[in-house]
Structure of 4,5-9,10-diseco-3-hydroxy-5,9, 17-trioxoandrosta-1(10),2-diene-4-oate hydrolase:
Amino acid sequence: MALTADPEVSEARDDGTSVTAPETLLIAPADLRRTISTSEGVVHWTELGEGTPLLFIQPWGPHPGVTAWMAFAEVAQELSDRYRCILLDLPNYGLSGPVEYHEPVHDVAVRAVIRLLDELELDRVVVVGGSMGGTTALDLALTHPDRVSALFVGSCHASTGGDPYLLAPFPPEAISYYLASVEDPASEFHLRRFLGSLVHQHELLTEELVSQMISFRERSAAHIEAEAASATVAHSNLGDLHRITCPTVIFHGRIDRMVPLEQALMLAAYIRHADLVVFGECGHWPSFERPHQFAIQLSTFLKALNHSGHPDTTTQENAG
């Protein structure tokens, strides 16, 4: 099901500036949006529902218009009657940032997560993340294990800069389309081709969605400049994955042209207690392509945690 648009909304940031968001497939209504100002730019998130807190971290994709709302809105709306859903935009995406960095990009992302958790006074949360959000969640679990109660992650590498491929060609197909879209940012053709390499069900790539991504990019010059001036640094997490002990589910799209399915098998081999979920007829963004099925799998995982007496699903109903 494709997302539908709401009327244009606007809000005032706590730094006094006004943010108008006509791209309503990418940015949530103003009454759901929150921001904090930090030493590394604005951190923006969307919040809906009450109950056990779930942190959703956005995936990678066309910069800067790929957002947590675009990726997780339908999932969060299904779960918000039972859970407090917190949807985070990472630095230089959506309404977070801009920030320039010269270090592993996921370290920058983890700092944004920690700032958000501290702001909301949440000691520990269940973290949901795909693609870049999945790698960020794994990095968070390794560097701040006391802040992560469970992981539902996938469509990702373990490491900044990627991990070795056994069978799939490298670099993946989507990377070449991404680079073409960066070199010609005004091209709808290159954007559509890039999106088409991330999403298997192309009917979800509506004219409205593509148009909003283009318009959002056109009015986000500071984000684009900050990202262009930045440089990530590769860092491997493979040797440390065995230290992740929290309950974990790894998910992946069967037809992922960005991160091959074999990477999910690799993660499962290193995190030996993890369960693996594969979404058929699905690309790099399972929460976007298969939101109902994604919500079912996530809900099943959360219910299992609750039935097992996991403390962060039984005692944090009113956290934050």
About this structure: The chain has one domain: 19-126+133-307. The first strand starts at residue 9 and ends at 12. The CA atoms of residues 71 and 274 lie 23 Å apart. Strands lie at 9-12, 18-21, 33-38, 41-48, 52-57, 83-89, 125-130, 148-154, 248-253, 275-279.
